[in-house]
Design goal:
Elements lengths: L3 E6 L3 H12 L4 E7 L2 H11 L3 E5 L7 H11 L4 E6 L2 H13 L3 E5 L4 H21 L10 H7 L14 E6 L3 H9 L8 E6 L3 H14 L3 E3 L11 E4 L5 E7 L2 E7 L11 H11 L4 E5 L8 H9 L3 E5 L9 H8 L4 E3 L4 H9 L9
Length: 356
């Protein structure tokens, strides 16, 4: 088996050294070089043809975002961003994912060497996933394409607290969720979402979605009522459950143990929806690494819910939706661009159109 060729791009000599040492310990990875800035990186990409790039968000001479944008336009390739756990770092990382980066890891705030050792396993897993990911270049239509997606087809929706949409996602999910939400009208049924994301990133992500979607998007508070026209994104490091309070649905947040190594966990959210909303809910699993959410979606289908998963061709990583499909949890397997309409159709009681 060929080893995955990795190029490490970081302005810190210590960070380059540590990343190289830790990545080289995995027999499936080969660090073929490193670069202190995007200009050196550009030449090494041409010379060495890496399979995956690790890219620091904050770089000298040319910032990481500008370099990533140029790279994804001219030579699209799998990129894992290395980000700081700050509000600015979160915003920049979300922009990087929008530009086409596959995933990200966060730099430790203190004790760099010990911190890198702690995050090495996560980085290695994400590099391996990135090597298999489907990378798309930047759409040259840019904002024009986004504007079209931002204007969903008007449809008459029945305003009721009974209908509920539950979505789970991971790797590639921030952009997939954006695509789905931009297809939703302002009065769509309430949507609850579990996306694997760090605590410092979930708030900026929810705010970013609120700015670009017709629905109102937020991180919920514990006990917050779930109402139509609103999207509730689980805060990082908290499980989100849907529970009944009389005739209403409310959000329940807790920090019980991670499930499938994740908090929030898609399984936790979807199983709570199966138990408390049953046939009144529709479930979806979007792109993601691993199998979190597969059993939760199966529980939803067994409870009488309609279920959809994203297809392999449009998923960045077909781990979670593929696992759900393998379990028999998916009633429909659809490309990303058709999922919003499918969810609305299923909420309205009409069948989703079959995938082409």
């Amino acid at each position: 088996m060929n080893r995955i060729k990795v190029l490490v791009v970081d302005d810190s000599a210590l960070m380059r050294k540590l990343l190289t040492e830790f990545l080289e310990r995995d027999p499936q990875l080969e660090v073929i070089g490193s670069a202190p800035d995007p200009f050196v990186a550009r030449e090494k990409i041409k010379q060495l043809a890496p399979d995956v790039l690790t890219l620091d968000v904050e770089m000298p001479r040319m910032d990481g975002l500008t370099f990533l944008e140029n790279l994804m336009r001219l030579r699209p390739m799998p990129v894992v961003m290395v980000s700081s756990l700050t509000e600015r770092g979160a915003e920049t990382t979300l922009q990087a994912l929008e530009l086409g980066a596959v995933d990200f890891v966060t730099k430790p705030k203190i004790d760099l060497e010990a911190g890198i050792r702690q995050y090495a396993d996560e980085l290695i897993v994400k590099i391996k996933a990135a090597a298999r990911a489907r990378v798309r270049g930047i759409n040259t239509l840019g904002g024009a394409a986004a504007a079209v997606r931002a204007s969903p087809t008007p449809r008459k929706m029945l305003r009721t607290t009974e209908r509920l949409i539950a979505i789970g996602a991971s790797t590639g999910g921030t952009e997939a969720i954006k695509d789905v939400l931009m297809g939703m009208p302002a009065d769509a049924p309430a949507i609850v979402i579990a996306q694997h994301i760090p605590a410092a990133f979930s708030g900026p992500f929810a705010a970013r979605m609120d700015r670009c979607c017709a629905m109102r998007v937020c991180e919920p508070a514990d006990g917050q009522q779930i109402v139509p026209g609103h999207v509730y994104i689980a805060p990082g490091d908290w499980h989100l459950r849907v529970v009944r309070d009389g005739a209403r649905y409310v959000c329940r947040l807790d920090q019980t143990a991670p499930v499938n190594r994740h908090r929030p966990s898609c399984d936790v959210l979807l199983k709570s929806v199966a138990e408390n909303a049953g046939v009144n809910a529709v479930g979806a699993i979007l792109t993601g690494m691993g199998d979190d959410g597969a059993r939760g979606l199966l529980a939803m289908r067994e409870a009488g819910c309609r279920t959809v998963v994203q297809d392999e061709a449009t998923s960045v990583v077909w781990g979670m939706p593929g696992a759900a499909h393998k379990l028999g949890a998916a009633e429909q397997v659809l490309p990303l661009e058709r999922i919003a309409d499918a969810l609305l159709d299923l909420c309205a009681g009409t069948p989703a159109r079959n995938a082409a």
